[in-house]
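Kindly inspect this one:
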Amino acid sequence: MQRRQLVQLAGAAMASAAFGAQAQSFPSRPIKLIVAFPAGGPTDITMRVLAENAAKILGQSVIVENKPGAGGTLPAQALQTATPDGYTLAQIPLGVFRLPYTTKINWDPVKDIRYVLNVTGYAFGLVVPADSPLKSWTHFVGWAKANPGKLSYGSTGTLTSPHLTMELIAQKLGLELLHIPYKGSADLMQAIAGGHIMSAADSTGFAPLVEAGKLRVINTWGEQRLPKFPDAPTLKELGLGLVQNSPFGLGAPRDTPPALVQHLHDAFKQAMEQENYKAALARYDMVPMYMSSAGYSKFAQETFLREKALVDKLGLGKAP
């Protein structure tokens, strides 16, 4: 074996030993978890339960920091300048994989994030105020066709999954809708409850308002009807051939040592398996949706390619 190869092997062994020692003493201070949507919404509420569970397992606090806006992509952006020492994690919504196609950025969502694990995915739907004359999807489509550009719908941000799904539906049906973006579900629900918009496309953060009799569910976007809203048809049932559940998980800075990624993966996997996290998700018709670090990385690669096709189809890509 050549001297250079021996030196390289020795260096790799030393690095591995250092990472192992680092992982044994990790964490020695609080970990920051950046969440992509505002406090008080379904993402924030469920992620705080996950963070509390993980903190008990890790023996250190996991502090949630809300960083809403820019379609949920700000936490991923923050990872690009964070120290890769395991003390900064970020929620990675699906919109992150669309970013290079719609915005000029100098980093790659697949290569420049270390994917730790996927934890869940959203259940989505379209809601209107309970007293709206739009009693069903048929009414919604009919009114939109008769009033081009006037039927307003809110979403959790431009180029988020709710926005793109509604635009894809509009394209399929030849509708012209008025999109109004908000920073997150909490803001969006305030807007529709206050009568500022005619409808809202969102994850099931709308559930409490539906149960209180203030909103009505027009459709849901999963593979099957949601048990909580059995009367609301799916997009597939309505002949649109669409399913949207938008998985999300946790990412770390690109150069985070593998031993630390494994340590974090194991702690958060255990955290997401606990009953209180499952119960928090169930409030919003969400379920645990585990992917390993390797599985989540593969999902990121595949989603990156699929989202390009969607952005191109809708003509929402950035100018060359």
User: Anything to note?
Assistant: The radius of gyration is 21 Å. Residues 124-220 form a domain with the D-Maltodextrin-Binding Protein; domain 2 fold (CATH 3.40.190.10). The CA atoms of residues 34 and 90 lie 5 Å apart. The first strand starts at residue 31 and ends at 35.
